Structures are given as C-alpha cells and as structure tokens.
Amino acid sequence: MSLAATHLREEPDALRSARPDPCGGQPATAVPTAINSGESQPVMTDYNSPMKIPISVVVALLVCTAAQAQEGRLPASVDISDEPHHTVLFENPEIRVFHLELQPGEATVPHRHKNLYAYMSLHPSTIANEVRGRPPVIVSLEGSEVHTSKGGFTLAERNKSTEPADLIGIEALKSDGIGFATPIGGFPFHDAAFGELFEFPVMRGYTMTIAAGGRTEKHDENYDRLVVAVSDLKLREDLAGQPSSELQMKAGDVKWFPRGVNHATTNAGTSPATFITLEFNRPVVQ
Q1: Would you say residue 234 has pLDDT above 60?
Q2: Burial of residue 141, with CB atoms counted within 10 A of its CB: 0-12 exposed, 13-18 middle, 19 or more buried
Q3: Which residues contact residue 34 at a Cβ distance below 8 angstroms, ignoring those fewer than 6 apart?
Q4: Which helix (H) or strand (E) holds 166?
Q5: Is 133 exposed, middle or buried (0-12, 13-18, 19+ CB in 10 A)?
Q6: Which pairs from 9-18 meet CB under 8 Å and 24+ separation?
Q7: Residue-by-residue DSSP string for 169-188
Q8: Are the C-beta atoms of residues 252 and 166 closer than 8 Å to each other?
Q9: Residue from 167, 85, 91 nearest 124 by CA
C-alpha cells in the first residue's frame, strides 16, 4: 500500500547558474513523502552510542565588520575545525562531522573546505555563502534537505533567516575513493520509502522513511555508514547470529556503523522513522 511518493528537490536553474563553482553545492535531497513496499538499501546496526548535537550557542564570534568589507580587508581564513561556530560531532580517518549553529544575522569566520562534503539543515533556513571577490550566493534550505560540494575553497557562511540556523556538515577526509561496486538499493523492504541523494567515488547518500511496524529484510552491509536521524528513531535491529537489540536516536543525532554485518531493521516506534544514510568506500586492507 502506497502512503506517499518520493520527490527529488532540484536546485533552480537560476541559482545553479549564478552559484560560483567553489561554493556551489549541488542539492541532493530526495525526501520520502510516501511509504511503499519494494526494494531499497539498509539502515542501521547496534554499535556505539549516538552522538548528540550540542544545543549551546557559541559565544565567541569573529566576523567581518562592514568597515572591513568596504575596505576589502577580511579576517584570515582558518581550518573548519578552528572556526568557532563549528563543533566537531564525530571524527575518524574517513570523515569529520560538524554541527554549525548561527543566530540570525551571524556569520562564520572565513574557513576552508578542503574536500568533498555534504550538508543538511535541521530546520528551514536561508544561508548566504560569501566568497571573496564574488557576490554572496543565497541558498534556501528546507528541513533535512541535503546539498553537496566538491570543496577546495574558502568561504564564510551567514544566517539570513529570522530564526537560528542549525546545520550538519559531513566532510570526506579522503579523495581517493575507489567507487561503489553495487548500486544503492537492491534489498527487499516493506512499508517504507527510499530516495537516492547523490553518489561520488568516495561517498554517496540516500534517505529512507519506514512506517511504524515497517521493516527491511536481512541484507549485507558492504560499506561503512553514517546515519543522521531526521526524526526521532526507535528501531529494532536483528543481526545474524545475535539477539535483537533496540536503537534509539533523537532528531539530529549521528551515528557511525562499520561495514560487514548482515541485519534487518524494523521501526519499533509508533510514528514514521526518517533518516539519512551516507556510505563511504575505502579499499579493504588485506
């Protein structure tokens, strides 16, 4: 029984053509608004505990003043890990995950994005990407909408919304991905919806909504995964050869899952469970 349909959000042509290549992420959001039976890709297992997104507001602000902008003087750029509005949520040799929080009108210090990254907003927001020597590029984000950028540039981000902006950024630390041998999807699921977001050689992503009582069937996980909870999640995990376990995550939590498990996932909650999964490919060390 179909409860809705999955829609891909495409970036308007005007914004795509106006966006400078350095800061122009491509929108990559397919938001499942329906739940169908069919075939798709996995979701989560029961390893480490969820990583919570901090709620506190960063007090120390280092932003460009109007006078500096008029005089063409900008603060020196910093690594994203040293930018005071960015908080590291998770890091390992493959990825870094940041939470960015900006009050209305606030801006980050100019900082460098070295590699491919994906970012999503937890709530609707409007962000100005400010690159030296170029007009700001304004990006309007819906809640849970995902964009990507290939990185290799320096920018400052300014919250043009009337409400606080909460974003999560996931940066791939390696650029030598070997590509994915299998397509996204390919396993049976029931009362669920799946949407492919993007794919690069080192990282790809998809979104999934599972209705209360819906499930995936058992399948192998061939790639490392980062799960970002879009809604509150209460999932039952059935791993081959192990007792069932329960996984709970709050909206905005992130969690890392190593490859190499066989499992099925059931939504044990009373409302639909929506999450975004990013898969990472790396050579297997023999």
Answers
A1: yes
A2: buried
A3: 2, 3, 4, 5, 6, 193
A4: strand 165-172
A5: exposed
A6: 9/142, 9/145, 11/147, 15/137, 15/138, 15/139, 18/137
A7: EEEES-S-----SS-S--EE
A8: yes
A9: 167
Tokens of 106: 């606030």
> What confidence tens digit (pLDDT) does each residue in 117-173 have?
999 999 999 999 999 889 999 999 999 999 999 998 999 999 999 999 999 999 999
Whether the CB-CB separation of 31 and 207 falls below 8 Å is answered with yes
**Of 134, 174, 149, residue with least CA distance to 282:** 174
DSSP string covering 33-79, please? ---EEEEE-----S-SPPBPPP-PPP-------HHHHHHT--PPPEE
pTM: 0.74
What would the two tokens of residue 251 be? 């909206």
149 with 23: CB under 8 angstroms?
yes
Per-residue tokens: 155: 């920018």
HSE, CB side, 13 Å, CA atoms: give it for residue 92. 9
β-pair partners for 86: 100
Distance CA 262, CA 168 (A): 28
